[in-house]
Write a structure and sequence with these properties.
single chain; alpha/beta; Rossmann fold; 7-stranded mixed β-sheet; 7 helices; SAM-binding_MTase; transferase; SAM-dependent_MTases_sf; ubiquinone
Length: 226
Amino acid sequence: MPPEVIDVLEEKIPDVDKALEQLIVPIMDFKESLATILDLGSGSGNVSRALSRRFPEANIYGIDYNEMAIANAISTSKTQGIKNVKFLTLNATSLPVEWTQKFDLVIMYDVLHDLPDPASVMKEVYRVLKDDGVASINDPGLHSNHRDNVGNTNVAGAGYAISTVICLPCSLSADDTPGHGMGWGYENKEALLTSSGWRVKDKRNIGSHMSLNFTCVKEQRENYVI
């Protein structure tokens, strides 16, 4: 991914601290404390650094497949004196074995629709999350049925256009992938989550109707196999 695109994505959240506060509200209904946090798809670390400011005692990990983004994250965090975030270049479909049931919270901010294999990634999130942990998944709030988006100028003028040049190519960056992009829609995302072992406990817009957040916990199914 070109450095110019990384810079644009880094600035996509106008007030990351405010967005994080909104995102945390439903999480704290299920968790009294967050000692270990994973920011999956951290990019250059904007959300990870906000997490560090909000939870200075937590151990935070920011991971991304993009080496340039992780290098930027490490450099910026060093400049800002942030010490409780560790940035790593990793493939989200094969996280470290030793991370099984490691995290109290996994955040995926504007990531799910970009993934070539979201189902495999969500299985890994399930594995590395503690049984009483929370997954917070923020993604564009577009409808899966494109007719339901008619009249929403933000979708046509911004959402679909951005998806064509960034999101869709990312989601097609591996062989035999569905190529979701923003057009995947939140109804289809929720169907994936509920069919793969998750219970959506809260669903709300964060900042705008274009940003929909799913707060999820593990559905304790006896027959669910990762």
